[in-house]
Structure prediction request, 1167 residues.
Amino acid sequence: MLEPLNQLEEEARAALEAAADPGALAAWRTTYLGRRGKVTEAVKALATLPAAERPAYGRRVNEIKEALEAAYEARAEALRQASLAQAWVADQVDVTLPGRPIRPGRLHPSTQTLREIYRIFAEMGFQVYRSRDVETDEMNFTLLNMPPHHPARDMWDTFYTTRPGVILRTHTSPGQIRAMRDYCPEPIRVILPGMCYRYEQITARSEIMFNQVEGLAVGRNITMANLKGTIVDFARRMFGEGRRVRFRASHFPFTEPSAEVDMDCILCGGKGCRVCKYTGWLEIMGSGMVHPVVLKNGGYDPDVYSGFAFGMGPERIAMLKHGIEDIRYFWANDLRFLQQFG
Amino acid sequence: MKVPISWLKEYVEIPIPLEPLAERLTMAGLEVAAIERIGDWWDRDRIVVGEVVEVRPHPNADRLVLARVAYGGPEVEECVTGAPNLFPYKGRGRVSLKVAFAMEGAELYDGHQEGFVKTRLKPTKIRGVPSRAMVCSEKELGLSEDHEGILILPDDAPVGVPLADYLGDAVLDLDLTPNLARCLSVIGVAREVAALTGGRLRYPDTSWRTEGPPAADLARVQIADPELCARYIATLIRGVQIGPSPYWMQSRLRKAGMRPINNVVDITNYVMLEWGQPLHAFDYDKLVARAGGDIPTIIVRRARPGETMTTLDGIARTFTEDTLLICDTAGPIAVAGVMGGLETEIDDGTRNILLEAANFDFISIRRTTQALKLPSEASLRFGKGIHPALAEPAARRASELMRVLAQGTLAQGMVDAYPRPAAPVVISLTTSEVERNLGLSFSLAEIAGFLEPLEFRCEPVAADTLRVTVPDHRLDCQYPADLIEEIARVYGYDRIPVIELADRLPPQRANRALELEEKVRDVLVGCGLQEVITYSLTHPAREAALIPGQGGEAQPPAYVTIANPISPERVVMRRSLLASVLEAAAANLRFQPRVTIFEVGKVFIPAPDAELPDEPRRLAIVMTGPRQDRHWLASAEPDLDFFDLKGVVEALLERLHVTGACYEPADHPSFQPGRTARLRLGETEIGFLGEVHPRVREAFDLPERRVAAADLDLEALLSRVPPGWRVEPISVYPAVLQDLAVVVAEEVPAARVRDLILEAGGFLLKEARLFDVYRGEPVPPGKKSLAYALTFQAPDKTLHEAIVARQVQRIVQRLRQEVGAELRG
Prediction:
């Protein structure tokens, strides 16, 4: 009595197996599970059977119906997958081919370094103060405690203009006087970035034009210990935690005491190499306590106020950080150089 | 300044080894740039002081001799040598010549090879005579290039002692900042060493033995210009014998970088290196002759205009009134502090000497040195300032050395004209001042403990105050800050604590100029442009190349002009950014086809009524080359052109929230006619953008393809940036999109059509984007079709089709009225 049912299931499964595309599958569904489908008819036949046979028949026919519906779903899914797979094969690409080119612009490495310096000092409360490139001799030298013919003027090879008393600034230090005169008697924390000029032969190590960033803090409670604190913090932010920094007596006419700041060589870690001239140390900036004459020229009473100043070269910093051996790269603007910066 | 350690040790005990000494000096500001070691590589067992006891002829060679050398033991070694300075002793029997003696296995420089090549001494036979040792030349020992003869040591050289102990040395090469002029002398360095290491200082003896007539009877000194000459001392040394100076002195001079000349000149140099006081020796008899047999008078005065003299170097020089001269009654005999005159120079026949120890104004010396381009060891020292007190010990020391080493007799006393004695410098220093500057608290006793070893005299005058008298050799101390630096140096900069700033934070101020400038950079970088930075220094001709065909007629613009340019290419401060950015583009186009760069920077415009020029910022952009690089994904696209550039400028204005831009067709000599726009914001001209004129392209070596460039006034542009802006709410109601194509005459600018559309469209029209420009059939000739995608949207409701249709109708009507536009069917 159940044999025809078993045969029906077998037949239906075989037909399902044979349905290879969505059309055949739909036809199969109509044939077996549709409203007039063979399985549906078999279910309807239940009513025509004697009462004693009904339970067994009913169980079996329902079992078959559910199994075939499940098989149908599975088959439909398999066909969908197969068809997608087929489409994907057609759509596949060589993922090792290069991507569509984006040509990102980049900032000049000097700008990048300057911004890094601004950012670090901004967190310490130092703001950017800029001043002019073409300066008076008075601002560049005299007010910075270098009267005319002062021997210290030899430390800067100067470009003079044809207008007497007007020069190209040799350092950003004239900005110290300008900032002090602008802000007196407020306390000051500024950094003074800008292009400076020196009368020098252009070589791999020296340029006629370079950026400088000077720092200036003036207040009623500023000591050389604070100068050291500020510079050590900066050096570690700029060059990495754990850098060793040393302060060595030096001379700048506008600071007293003056100090040269050295950092352990980032290439050899202080063991000595070509870059640090086998000393283990790299000179990274000049610094000192603002000279009383300079404070006075800026409008601050040196008996009440004190201050520190320091100056560094962003190009030199970039050279140290990125192993650039020729300073001429900076203004040559060769894209093959510039495009190496992120 | 080169300081041989052996010389330094004469004046100061050095209780620490060389390396720590160099470190300590460097940290205290006397930067040891290098340590030159002499003889540190000499084999102590194989290179020793030897004594040539006999020089015998070589049996087989006339140009060789056999030197028999004792070297401490009982044996005597015979070696073959060709040293010409041994030949006079050949066959003279027993002699005693101290030499540097090298034995088998010793390493030496090869005397016969060019340069310095090391070689090991091996036993050999020279013309039949075995020889396994050697008497050495200076070159073989690495002391100098000299290989003419062997090195003859002083008679008292101890035989058998390792040469390294007797002759070895180290020379500190000090890099001195201008404030350390006092250390341009061995004694000056010794003082620092004493203070920094605790070693005891010993000054050289400056006593002298004088006899005979007083110096004052033999010479007179007149200082005509005491402002420029604070002091002039003359001493007289009679009966000297000019000859070479002793070996030790020559050796010290050489190590210090000076060339020995003769005993008298060497002594003046030696004492200058020792004390820092330059000296000059005149031939006294020549002065007497010039005075017609009378007692010579030294006159220190300014040159008369056009006065001339031949200096020691044989050059006839003409002076101006700025030059300070040493003269006698017959005229100039030396340029004060710079160089002596040829006529009164010391020569081999000189018997009597007038020795000058003087003090000159440093500014005058510097000016003269620069004017005559005559830097010397003397002018270097005078030019940095010397205390007049120093003249006296230096004069005595040098005179005495001339007595001892040149067999002179010293006249009694000195002629000392000292019209302007220097007043002692006294500084009052408080403990609180020290603490206020260093952040370290020291007691008065501690402070005195730092300063006294440097010869500052310290007297406590109050519980917290020291009265500090500055020693004569220190011209660099005027303020308490100068003393504080000395305290810090001796205490050690490295011992000052590291403390973050704790002072009041100053008022925080925005720097809008910088912020906007950086924003411009960011936007342009975001547009794919590379930032460049070019030289501010340029040549007017390069900028003139931006204006082709100008010829020589037009008045060249005023430049900030460099008085001392270092290169003929860079003689003025630029007025244009575009010229240098075009140059950068041209340079890069040699390596790559596509260049898109910009520069933000200053130009320098002389202001007629001001001392200093205006320094406005400008922005230059250059874009050229294929829009796409060759790439497997890219189709061949045409070159970058005006519209690529304009897109960048539009993006920049949009991101700066600058509105009201007006691009007008314009003529500009740098740009190609018809492809150039003037950018205006309101009434303000911001600059030009366009494609570079072919003749400008040629002048800048740019290739023959489109080069789009903009040259904008950044100050004017940034002044239009609003301080802030408000965000428009986003409508939740759907937008209605509608395309509109109109046909207008060719000469109607697209911007005009768009303006009319926006005006007529009213507030509901959110956007009118031009998506197509079409010419040709069926559009009649002389006309063009402009197609716009219009977006209508209301803030508060869904727009009804009919309303949109009415707005479009209005727009069409308006366009018809104003520019004769026809709706395209």
